[in-house]
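Aim 2, interim progress: modelling of the magnesium ion-bound target.
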Amino acid sequence: MPRFDDADFAVVSAPGTPRTEGPNPFAAARPGLSRGNSSLAIPGGDGNTVEVPASRSSISDAAALMHNLSLSPSMKERRGSRNSFGTSLPIPRSPRHSRSRMGPRRPEVSQDILASQVQDMSKEKVAAAKNMAFAFDIDGVLAHGNEPIEEAKLALKMLNGDNELGIKIPYILLTNGGGKTEIARCEQLAGLLESPISTDQFIQSHTPMQALAEYYETVLVCGGEDFKVREVAETYGFKNVVHPKDILAWDPTVSPWGIFSEKDRENAKPRDFSKMKFDAILVFADSRDYATDFQIIMDLLLSENGKLLTRAKDPVASRIPIYFSQGDLVFPTNHKGPPRLTQGSFRIAIEAQYKALTGVDLERVVYGKPERATYTYADEVLKNWMEQIHNENTLPQHVYMVGDNPQSDIIGGNMYGWNTCLVRTGVFQGKEGENDAHNPANFGVFENVLEAVKAAVRKELGQDFKLKWNPKVNPVLHGDGTSAVE
Ligand code: G3P
Ligand code: MG
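Predicted structure of the complex, ligand included:
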């Protein structure tokens, strides 16, 4: 299996791993050492991870945003709220293959044979098809919550082989969503979009955070429905996973306004938390009980080295790290009005509370788009996916990010050197002919994902490329311009 090399990232390795040349920002981030304004400590892992320098500040932006927490911040302010510099985001050295997955459905054998004959006749187009790829955002591009966007079904079908070559054009799904296992979400999406979706072509906001399991043993994991994030964290290899409701089950007075149902009681795992030392806080998805999550996160941030019920004399020196899986402030749903608040807004509230209680800016790490670590990880997933579908471990040169959120999908794709397509089916509400003023999509703005896919495929494979497989195609005639493909 291919492995990341440090040289691939231009970063240094985690402690314990062989190093390439250059300074080690990780080491400088340790307590007692200083590097710029960062002092966020990341304990050493066993070396199976690589750290990518953050492209945004690890310092809270609460102060800048406190004046407009209840308003819709301007694009400029939102972007300002998301930049970070000075810390590292560990990601897995190579994508881990899932134990089970929704494998790509094999086309009919007869189509396979016919398609390979057609492909033999069109070597240039085949090479171009393998040299392009898509990274799709989900919410606002492929679906709105549990409702599929119809055009997305057609786009995926075409990329899965319903095209004149009968060839799979590689694509991955790159979402800031999360809260359940990759397997569960892929199964759900496959049903919704009527296409097979493999976990090996799928990245949720918290997927790269599995690397943190090599650094932290006991973690508080927040967000998502029911207790699903517990399963996510355990799948990632965290040894001792605590859900906020476990703490409520142990002592309901911890959160005076918390929500605790009978179902919660059945599933919670209360233990004696007065003796437990937490190593880190991980927010994997949107909170379903803000009161409890705010309270317990704040308790831990203010505690003496992650021990509940304690208060540190110097909360900054003894603070345990906190990681958020993504930073989007709003996201599109099936709500008829404007986009709804999401994890980034929750984070800003935590930052504001922390600043108000301590007078100090909170250091935190935010994964997800537009963070570079997420795109770096996406490249590796894409390469692996290419190996699975085409038996070639290569990275396509022309990657098209199709997204609805200029603040995450587009700015991230632009910074990473991808082609970016902004669609009008989600967060972006610009008028026809308009691009986003602050983070314009470099390939253009499209009505929906299908239009973006068509434009990109035609740019790479030719304007006359047929977006439909013709089961009656004559491979002998194909390639000389007399194909019967519609
Ligand atoms: O919470 C925001 C998240 O749902 C956005 O997902 O697919 O648009 O990156 P996506
Ligand atoms: Mg989106």
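The chain has 16 helices and 17 strands. Residues 137, 139-141, 403-405, 426 surround magnesium ion (ligand 2) (CB under 6 Å).
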